[in-house]
Write a structure and sequence with these properties.
Elements: E1 16-21, E2 31-35, H1 36-50, E3 57-60, H2 67-79, E4 82-85, H3 91-101, E5 105-108, H4 110-117, H5 123-126, E6 131-134, H6 141-150, E7 155-160, E8 169-171, E9 185-186, E10 191-195, E11 208-213, H7 225-231, E12 232-233, E13 248-257, E14 263-268, E15 273-275, E16 278-280, H8 282-291, E17 295-305, E18 309-318, H9 325-335, E19 344-347, H10 361-367, H11 371-375
Parallel strand pairs: 3-4, 3-5, 5-6, 6-7, 18-19
Antiparallel strand pairs: 1-2, 7-8, 8-9, 10-11, 11-13, 12-13, 13-14, 15-16, 17-18
Helix pairs in contact: 1-2, 4-6
Length: about 375
Amino acid sequence: MSGESVQACGTLESDVAAILYTSGSTGQPKGVVLSHRNLVIGAKSVATYLQNTSEDRILSLLPLSFDAGLSQLTTALCVGASLVLLDYLLPRDVVRCCESEQITGITGVPPLWMQLANQKWTPSASEQLRYFANTGGKMPRKILGRLRVIFPNASPFLMYGLTEAFRSTYLDPSQVDNRPDSIGKAIPNAEILVVNEQGELCGPGEPGELVHRGPLVSLGYWNDLARTQERFKPPPNQLDGVPLPEMAVWSGDTVSMDDDGYLYFIGRRDDMIKTSGYRVSPTEIEEVAFASRMVREAAALGVEHPTLGQAILLIVSATENDRDTSELLTYFRQNLPNHMIPLQVEWVDQLPKNPNGKINRKYLALQFADIFLEDGQ
């Protein structure tokens, strides 16, 4: 090699392309390291099930630092679609943009969809929309129904994703009427497993941890080996004898799968409320709150209590000016067992959001941490 220069190779698909920080709903945010392969295959997978083409005009309302926001950018680049960036101030600005830019696709999170569902949409702003997609939390049925009326020509895509794997599942629009509570099945080029505490695959209806395997699994957490080893582990169906095992993402989220392979979200491990010896999913409580038609936004939290371990605190904003706690709790008693009924309801004008547009549960948990200890309930 004397006298010859060594030529460096070009960028490899396994090289680091980006670091996305999770919203940090529990603990400090983690930097998720994404490879070029993650980004490219993720874009192709999403573009496949959304059926994106170069004719699409996609509206970007989510921060590009959020995996769903970045996914819209990479998906548009993948198929040559137009991406319209909008840093909106008021929800009605979105309506105007949809009309002026003739938007065909929007992805949002539940708090954003709640705002947009309450706007006045003209046919010229809504009828050209081909699809709308939800991620970052469960879409309330009432809001989904309203959006389907607003966007009569649009297919609804209900999605579930992990920053650690970019996107995991989607519900085919043809199944929305039959399974409105499902997060669907694995996206193209991914496998989703449901695993119990013994590390075995769960049977139909058995709750377990969602495990994502495939080429969208990221490279771990930036400069954090300990937490990487907690979440990135071989899948339970790994073949024996493989000297370098594949890494899968163990989400920490509890789901179940029905007989037809459709997945249902139960709760996040760190968000589960532990009260009077029961484990309660905040999502189940929030769904009943939305079904009451008395609240616009809702967040159920487990707050330290001197005798219950944790008590259920429900924080809501009202659909109208009327804030009737007694009527709301009566509705809960009619639809849930006693251990799932909130001990207290707090009404606020608006729930706080993090930079990704999701409800900031960490802030609420800190704000109301001592509410039952102070009141001595």
